[in-house]
């Protein structure tokens, strides 16, 4: 899918492209390609002389291949963007940017919400974009905002987990559910942090290359400050997740200790009856106290065993060991 945008009165307007002739008759400021086919790649190469990278090249994570200037002067950048899925874990999509012929070319395999948001905002805010570099900076700024919203979602999810973990009583099932939720939020928080680190590197590359005018340079600095504040927030969330995980594991250990305590108390309480039963179970000919009780020797033994079990239980209860 190829999306072509022209700049009209500071607004990004999308132009429908159905053929190569449609593309030749436009003067775009941004050409966005989502999983382009061979024909679309040939159109871009034939009209603008720009060779779009393949999927394997886009995913190349070598530092030397992520930001560089080609021999013909084209500027190539590889930047990660966050993609949250409603029915699954979040992911990071790598986008290849090419700055050539005063046009921003972007190639990615997934339709990203950040790109849709930039297109919508550009149509509703006249004068916000003057050239192709403004489009790129707007994408990076929107990426920071999107990551901030995602972090707010992580914080709200952790608040819900915190209420379930810090309740008066927590079952093992509740603890397992909480741990699963925390693992999901920790993974999302890590992806957001990685995404912000990559965006910082890309913006820093643009600033060092002296490719931006004064206004764009100030906007880039603001993006860097926003990313810096998000880094602190991700660190705070990591600490919160670690605290909740430690608390949850602690409650699980307490529940297990309660079970072990019950077995320990039961074992100790049954030791005296076992001892008595062992004594009177000996194969001895003469037990003087049994003759003393006569026909009630069996009843005497049973009462003695019951009393020897009840007395320790009463003592344990008085000391509070059964709570």
Summarize the structure.
With 323 residues, the chain is an alpha+beta fold. It has helices spanning 20-24, 38-48, 55-58, 63-66, 113-124, 132-165, 172-208, 214-280, 288-293, 297-319; strands at residues 2-8, 11-15, 30-34, 67-69, 75-83, 91-100, 103-108.
Give an overview of the whole structure.
This protein has 323 residues and is of the alpha+beta class. The protein has a 7-stranded mixed sheet. Helix 5 crosses helix 6. It starts with a strand and ends with a helix. The model has no long low-confidence stretch (mean pLDDT 84).
Tell me the layout of helices and strands.
Blueprint: E1 2-8, E2 11-15, H1 20-24, E3 30-34, H2 38-48, H3 55-58, H4 63-66, E4 67-69, E5 75-83, E6 91-100, E7 103-108, H5 113-124, H6 132-165, H7 172-208, H8 214-280, H9 288-293, H10 297-319
Parallel strand pairs: 3-7
Antiparallel strand pairs: 1-2, 1-3, 4-5, 5-6, 6-7
- The helix/strand order is EEHEHHHEEEEHHHHHH
Contiguous runs where pLDDT drops below 50 for at least 5 residues: none
Helix percent reads 55-70%
Task: Look at the helices and sheets and give the structural class.
Answer: alpha+beta
Strand order in the largest sheet: 2-1-3-7-6-5-4
Average pLDDT, rounded to a whole number, is 84
Task: Pick out its properties.
7-stranded mixed β-sheet; single chain; 10 helices; about 325 residues; alpha+beta; rod-shaped; about 65% helix
């Amino acid at each position: 899918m190829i999306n072509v945008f022209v700049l009209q009165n500071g607004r990004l307007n999308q132009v429908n492209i159905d053929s190569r002739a449609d593309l030749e008759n436009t003067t775009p400021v941004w050409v966005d390609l989502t999983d382009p086919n061979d024909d679309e790649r040939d159109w871009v190469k034939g009209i603008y002389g720009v060779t779009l990278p393949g999927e394997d090249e886009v995913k190349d994570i070598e530092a030397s291949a992520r930001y560089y200037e080609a021999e013909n002067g084209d500027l190539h950048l590889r930047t990660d963007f966050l993609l949250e899925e409603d029915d699954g874990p979040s992911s990071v999509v790598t986008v290849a940017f090419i700055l050539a012929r005063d046009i921003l070319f972007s190639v990615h395999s997934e339709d990203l919400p950040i790109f849709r948001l930039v297109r919508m905002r550009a149509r509703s805010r006249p004068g916000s974009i003057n050239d192709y570099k403004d489009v790129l900076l707007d994408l990076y700024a929107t990426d920071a905002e999107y990551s901030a919203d995602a972090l707010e979602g992580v914080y709200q999810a952790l608040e819900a987990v915190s209420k379930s973990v810090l309740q008066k009583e927590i079952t093992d099932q509740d603890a397992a559910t909480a741990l699963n939720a925390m693992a999901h939020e920790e993974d999302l928080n890590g992806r957001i942090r990685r995404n912000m680190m990559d965006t910082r590197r890309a913006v820093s590359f643009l600033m060092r290359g002296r490719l931006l005018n004064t206004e764009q340079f100030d906007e880039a600095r603001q993006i860097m400050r926003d990313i810096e504040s998000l880094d602190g927030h991700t660190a705070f969330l990591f600490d919160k997740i670690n605290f909740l995980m430690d608390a949850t594991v602690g409650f699980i250990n307490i529940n297990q200790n309660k079970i072990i305590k019950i077995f320990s108390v039961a074992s100790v309480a049954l030791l005296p009856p076992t001892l008595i039963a062992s004594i009177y179970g000996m194969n001895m000919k003469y037990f003087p106290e049994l003759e003393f009780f006569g026909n009630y020797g069996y009843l005497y033994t049973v009462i003695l065993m019951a009393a020897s079990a009840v007395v320790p239980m009463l003592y344990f209860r008085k000391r509070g060991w059964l709570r």
